Amino acid sequence: MMHEYESYFNFSAHILKSYPETSPWDLTPEIFSVRPKQTAPCLDFPDSLKPAALEQAKKSKLNPFHFMCGRNPFVLDTPPPPDATIVVAASGAVPPLMPWPISDDVQYEFVEELHAGECGMVYRIRAGQDARVLKLYIGHDAPARFRTEANAYAYISSHNVTSVVPQCFGWTEGDDLLKRIRGCPSRLLTLLSERDPKALKGLILEDLTGAQCLSVHNISLDVGEMALRALHRLHSAYILHKKPEKDNVLVFPETKRVVWIGFSHAICQDSVTRQALLAELAEGWAFIYQRLIPDGFIGWEPGPDAADPRTLVDDVAPAPIQPTHPRPSKPTITEEAIVILASYPDINLFSWDPPIFHLTPGPRRDHEYDTDEFLEAIKTQHRTLTFNPFGKWYGPCPCRVETIDIITENSDEWCAYDLPPRIQQLPTETDIQFVEYLKHSSNHPLFRVRIGSAERLLKIVIAVSRVPTLRSIYWADRPLQFSMNWRGKKNNAPCKPRFITERDAYSHIMHYGACAAGAVPQCYGWIELSRTHVDNANAAIRQAYVDEPPPWLVFPVFEDGSPSTAIVLEYLAESEAITLDNITPSRADIALRSLTRVHGSYVLHNDITNRNNMQLIRGRGGAPDRVVVVDFDHARVSSWKRAWPSRVGFYDEFVALWIHYYSWMIPMQRTFCKAEKHPHAITL
Questions:
Q1: What whole-number distance in Å separates Cα of residue 274 and Cα of residue 84?
Q2: Strands 636-637 and 108-116, how do they pair?
Q3: Which DSSP string corresponds to 122-170?
Q4: Distance between CA 585 and CA 577 in Å, rounded?
Q5: Terminal Cα-to-Cα distance of the chain (whole angstroms)
Q6: SS3 of 112, please?
Q7: What is the 3-state secondary structure (H, E, C) of 231-261?
Q8: Biggest CA pair distance of the chain
Q9: What are the angstrom distances between the C-alpha of 389 and each of 68, 220, 314, 327, 655?
Q10: Rounded distance, CA 585 to CA 316, Å?
Q11: Strand 325-326 to strand 352-353: parallel, antiparallel, or no bridges (unpaired)?
């Protein structure tokens, strides 16, 4: 069974296959952002934010809430399929547009001038009892523009899409009609005297009295959707408008009718491609949902020098992780989503070719336009409602689906794989020189040690307890022996010690290459600690607490008599936690790629959003940054029990970290200017 679900994937390639014959609004499941919802985040913002946003827009020429309607669903994310290049020609010839009949029995009267420019003039006239619009073409290219628009209206009539354009009653040429119009304006008469009357051509169109040009004053989510649906109707007649902009869209506020005008640059069937039609739909989506609706929200009417939000984003995806996997060619959106989601973690999400669009969001530069006044308003909003208005700045995680059953019902819930060998055990008598006590990670002390000539990180697992003077009611008097992850396990099953948890995790990680890929610190094995090791470890701890009792000490044995154990890891001298000060989009991407390497080892970290569990190693001398996943004492591996972890667990953890970085940390960094280099606060 396949559920209907809302997908955040970009499926523009699927839209392209049947566009314009199939409406994107009729596809199931519904494509995210094809119909932006009333729950667009900014629409719920308090009115107090609008003046601050308006003032910033006036100063910076950029609406800070341009992202409020989500991500453009029509931007083509993959190369077009071979069969989607050229639109299939409709059968039969399109009947040409006929001339408008002029009768001696009809009285023609000039009503008003609607538009006058270098390229044409538009007048409202009356033919008997009927109001009409006369559009005249002037200028050196008038014949070409007339033929183009007349041809477009012929296609419109032939394909029965007249409801989304003014009705065209025919064409006229020469000055016969103008001579019959009473009250013809002097400017038009002067024009006629300067030109060959026989070369004058025009169209007779429906009178659209009461219509308004689309603007920030009449735009709404409903009107925006109607405008895009109307554009699709034009595309279904194989007409490429070529000028999808607000001045070419008219709205009837009373009836909510939307029509497109201005076809003097249109391209019709013989030359149009599916890609061009879909690209124009994407352009229409952008000017409606990234400009008009956000501008209307804050009450801003931008001038021609306003910044285009699309120029502030680079959404070019980096190369896929090797080895690559060709994106599945499936007949439906649902089937393609199932293949991608239900094959994780066996197939790395970053290895699909072409890449999953927006899995690596391009960096945004619009924070460079922020003013101190606007950021202060955002901070106040965040402190008052604990909701960051920039939370949707980078859009939704593209792998998210609302109905998780699409994974569980269409794949093996558990991952089948070869069980790896255990990591090596070092001899207990191994000489370990304790160089420095570093810190505690959860319940585990970390030491910089020297084994032979190599510096290593020694993580002593579990056999740690607080000294009696610092015990609290929340801690047992005995050593903390068990993985918290397994407390309260069903059917009173025995708990799994943290050491075994981490040892098994590293066995998987080493075997399946996550350490070799640099996603996890190298593991050099594990060791049972001798009494000498324990004494030296405690001496290093006490040395770090000269003026106060140490809060932790290493115990030589567990409560059941088994010896203390430690894992020997790569020492990362200059590692640091990823914080609001150092997070960047590129580092977030590296971290997520590291997590997929861990998942590809069939290890679920299970504590991934803890701030200390992703460590950054800055690139030096031109080397790239590295982000490693650490602390696997909460981890789950599939070999323990078939019930843990499931594919859904891997999927949920990836989505959680993506949201943590792109929907929380990076927006928070922008809000509170917590970056190392944060070029905001323009002075205007």
A1: 6
A2: unpaired
A3: EEEEEETTEEEEEEEE-STTHHHHHHHHHHHHHHHHHTT-GGGS--EEE
A4: 15
A5: 58
A6: strand
A7: HHHHHHCCCECCCCCHHHEEEECCCCEEEEC
A8: 117
A9: 9, 20, 22, 35, 20
A10: 13
A11: parallel
Using alpha carbons, list the distances in angstroms from residue 286 to 192, 282, 346.
Answer: 41, 6, 36
- Tell me the sheet residues that pair with 434: 449
Classify strands 257-260 and 325-326 as parallel, antiparallel or unpaired.
unpaired
Nearest to 3 by CA among 31, 27, 29: 29
- Rounded distance, CA 230 to CA 105, Å? 37
Whole-number pLDDT of residue 486? 41
Strand residues in 421-551 grouped as ranges (E): 425-426, 433-441, 444-451, 454-461, 464-466, 523-528
Q: What gap in Å lies between CA 337 and CA 10, rounded to an integer?
A: 10
Contact 214, 260 (CB under 8 A): no
Nearest C-alpha neighbor of 602 from the set 525, 513, 517, 498: 513
Treating both helix axes as pointing N-terminal to C-terminal, what angle do 585-599 and 647-659 enclose, rounded to 10 degrees?
170
Give the position of tokens 């029990």: 641
Interacting residues of 582 by C-beta distance below 8 A, sequence separation 6+? 576, 616, 675, 676
**How far is C-alpha 149 from the geometric centre of its chain's CA atoms?**
38
CA distance 359 to 345: 15
For 295-299, 496-500, 503-507, 548-552, which range has the lowest pLDDT when averaged over its residues?
496-500
Cα angle value 98/103/107 (rounded, 5°): 125
For residues 450 and 215, give the distance between their C-alpha atoms in angstroms, rounded to a whole number. Answer: 70
What gap in Å lies between CA 128 and CA 571, rounded to an integer?
91
**Which of 307, 104, 130, 303 has its CA nearest to residue 209?**
130
Two structure tokens written together for 643: 């019930």
Task: Please answer whether residues 74 and 15 qualify as being in contact, where contact means their C-beta atoms are separated by less than 8 angstroms.
Answer: yes
In this structure, the dihedral spanned by the alpha carbons of residues 198, 201, 203 and 207, taken in order and rounded to 10 degrees, is: -80
Note the pLDDT tens digit of each residue in 164-174. 999 999 999 98
**Which residues are CB-contacts of 474 (< 8 A; sequence separation ≥ 6)?**
none
Task: Output the pTM of the full model.
Answer: 0.88
Question: By 3-state DSSP, what share of the chain in percent is helix, strand and coil, each rounded to 5?
Answer: 35, 20, 45
Could you tell me the two tokens for 316?
């070019």
Q: Give the model confidence (pLDDT) of 541-592 as tens digits.
A: 999 888 888 877 887 776 656 778 899 999 999 899 999 999 999 999 999 9
Asked whether 653 and 606 are in contact (CB, 8 A), the reply is yes
Name residue, tokens 């290493």: 554
The three-class DSSP label of residue 531 is: helix
Higher pLDDT, 120 or 513: 513
Q: For residue 450, what are the β-bridge partners?
A: 433, 455
The token pair at 680 is 């905001």
- Report DSSP letters for 272-331, one per residue: -BHHHHHHHHHHHHHHIIIIIHHHHHHT----TTPPPGGGGB--PPPPPPSSPEEPP--S
Cβ partners under 8 Å of residue 43, min gap 6: 68, 297
